[in-house]
């Protein structure tokens, strides 16, 4: 337990965006990226895919902290994918793949799924959930896509774009949770933390 008799909050993520979003809730927390594999062998629906990975990331960090028996942790794991025509688009491996992904997304609506898992190490209790947000992109010329890729922004992002950066100029509109598209469904995080006794408001 931390000083205020609250469990210590740990964000199981290497993502600077997730860290920023969680910090926006005014919480004190530490960051410990998970080293769990992000490969899902079986074919599963996107909502299952992102919840499996969010859970895997949180469990991996819970396991690595299990030696500190006196300390109680709330561990937060998350995973984001873009889904178009039933196909899961993760992060592009190279610029040509980013070009292909963005060409497919242009002028159409896709769904961004973000999974969330919070684990209370004191009890082993887990809460898992996800958010699905529909994002519609503007029509994009090949030249505009190339110029976007030249910013370097697409490479570490699901679907090869970041709505919070230059990618904002590619998006026409969305339906759902903006924060979940960036990588963390902040309202769902606050609901889960509250269920584990952390009141934010
Ligand atoms: C669609 C979209 C995705 N993304 C990002 C969120 C995620 O960081 C990334 C998807 O990869 P993830 O595998 O979900 O996360 P990560 O590898 O960056 O971090 P970690 O696994 O350690 O938590 O894409 C944006 O930043 N903006 C967007 O608009």
Automatic annotation (TrEMBL):
Has UniProt tagged this entry with the keyword Cell inner membrane? Answer: no
Keyword match Hydrolase: yes
This protein's superkingdom? Bacteria
Spell out the catalytic residues.
Answer: 79 (proton acceptor)
> What is the enzyme's class at the highest EC level?
hydrolase
InterPro entries recorded: ITPase-like_fam, Maf-like
Assigned EC number: 3.6.1.9
Q: Which GO terms describe its molecular function?
A: dTTP diphosphatase activity; UTP diphosphatase activity
Kindly state one GO CC term assigned in the UniProt record: cytoplasm
Give any single GO term for biological process: nucleotide metabolic process
Hey, where's the site called Important for substrate specificity on this chain? 17, 80, 164
Cofactor(s), by name: a divalent metal cation
Provide the alphabetized UniProt keywords: Cytoplasm, Hydrolase, Nucleotide metabolism
Which catalysed reactions does the entry list for this protein?
Answer: dTTP + H2O = dTMP + diphosphate + H(+); UTP + H2O = UMP + diphosphate + H(+)
Q: Where in the cell is it found?
A: Cytoplasm
Family listed = Belongs to the Maf family. YhdE subfamily.
Which HAMAP family does this chain map to? Maf (MF_00528)
What is the purpose of this protein? Nucleoside triphosphate pyrophosphatase that hydrolyzes dTTP and UTP. May have a dual role in cell division arrest and in preventing the incorporation of modified nucleotides into cellular nucleic acids.
Protein name per its UniProtKB record: dTTP/UTP pyrophosphatase
Its source organism is Aneurinibacillus danicus
Which lineage is the organism of this entry classified under, starting from the top rank? Answer: Bacteria, Bacillati, Bacillota, Bacilli, Bacillales
